[in-house]
# Entry
Amino acid sequence: MLLLLLLLLSSGDGKAQHVSGQKKNGSCVCEVNSNMWSFPAVNYNAMLQQVQSCEGSLNSLQEKLELSNQRLPQIQAVIKNVTERLEPHQYLNNQGLYTDLSFHLLSQELSQLETDIGAIHSQLNNGQTQKLSKEVGKLHTDVDKMHISKTINMKTVKEKLRYLKNGVESCKSIPKDFRGQGRFCFKGLISNISDPVMTKVSPKGKTYISGSWGKQAQMDSEGQKSSYWVQPLLNSHIWGNTLHIYQTYEDFMASANHKDFTIAPSFTHANTIEGPSAVLYGEALYYHCYRSIDVCRYDLNSNTVKRVTLPGTGVGFSNKFPYCYYDCRVNSDVDVEADEMGLWALYATVGNHGNLVVSQLVWDNEAETLNVSQTWETRMFKKSVSNAFMVCGVLYATRYVDEYHEEVFYAFDTATGKEDNSLAVPLEKVAKGVASLSYNPTNRQIYMYNDGYLLAYQALF
Ligand SMILES: *[C@@H]1O[C@H](CO)[C@@H](O)[C@H](O)[C@H]1NC(C)=O
Ligand SMILES: *[C@@H]1O[C@H](CO)[C@@H](O)[C@H](O)[C@H]1NC(C)=O
Ligand SMILES: *[C@@H]1O[C@H](CO)[C@@H](O)[C@H](O)[C@H]1NC(C)=O
Ligand SMILES: *[C@@H]1O[C@H](CO)[C@@H](O)[C@H](O)[C@H]1NC(C)=O
# Structure
């Protein structure tokens, strides 16, 4: 039943009368109390007109309604049809295999890659760059084809892309006169690790279970030539602001004659050390800085801090991607390492699905800037490794075996972008947790901060 409101103007007093109209038998019927007027002809005519136009609009409404009633099933059918046609994509979408956005991003990444390779190619035209260009070109065509045909396996494409990206990064690092595998690195992967050659309780005591320690790690450093250092995380096993340096091995073993540096004025300062991340390299301490995705460099001579932001989409910090075995080492998100090639930051990104990412760090002594020169993406989920370190541009990751054993089980080579899952090099320890593990290129030793115990090993090749 249709209801219609009629607005009738009364004659002189300006009062309006609201009357309900009803559709009856194809016409609009309104009951109007005309007693309140003294039949003024003008108003009657006006009212008549209103009633007629009421009928007119009612009819057109009726027409529209009939039209809608016919069209509604059609519209519903179209929606159903579209829904049905979208369902397969919805399925793929739920599986994380297909989205238009991913295609778009992929295409962008590929274009960037093509540009990068073009740039390298113009400087360094060799078989490897030619091969890379060809592969990237082919992948780009494949992705464009997929976009049209919508038959996709995004996982394979992403994997291929990661592989190519690493190839390009590695290409960048190969100098024109490249012949061997670097000045100091020609012996291949680590083949074995000795029993501990040095064991000591942290000078702060073994209640401080997290931190890092080692020997100054720069190959041709003038200062701090054979300094040993310890950096315990004194606040909640997460934050630290002090560095103890011992000029000699003897002083270190005797916990005597140390020099202390205050890196930050508190445990909540922007320059505070976060996580067991530090490495003493030359005359500076490099570490992950407080609640950030930055690596900091504290200069021992000037007491100043310079920093660089790590590249990547969604760089993990504040315990998002720590090192874990069945426990996680709190806030071990960003790990700074040194080797024969220089300085590295190991971390994980959302963009690389929480897998380990390796960035090479460069300190420019003239400009006094810290920068990231290159970045590689691995396929190893960071939270599935207990720790990691770098040797000759190769990342090694460890896993927990039991309370007294760790095992190096994974290697990723930045020179080739290739990885090896088949390693099984054992490491002995004295306590469960490995806060930090660092290689030192000056003596090829490996330093472990093992729940407040300090252990050193000899790496064998
Ligand atoms: C409907 O209107 C027609 C003519 O206008 C009339 O013949 C018929 O009797 C009416 N029916 C009802 C139910 O009022
Ligand atoms: C949907 O509509 C298209 C074109 O109008 C038609 O080819 C297809 O068969 C329809 N699909 C379904 C599920 O009705
Ligand atoms: C590796 O080193 C350990 C400790 O020195 C030793 O016991 C073991 O035999 C070595 N393994 C190999 C394969 O050389
Ligand atoms: C290094 O980083 C600084 C900022 O910290 C920036 O100004 C400079 O351009 C960077 N240098 C290179 C070579 O990227």
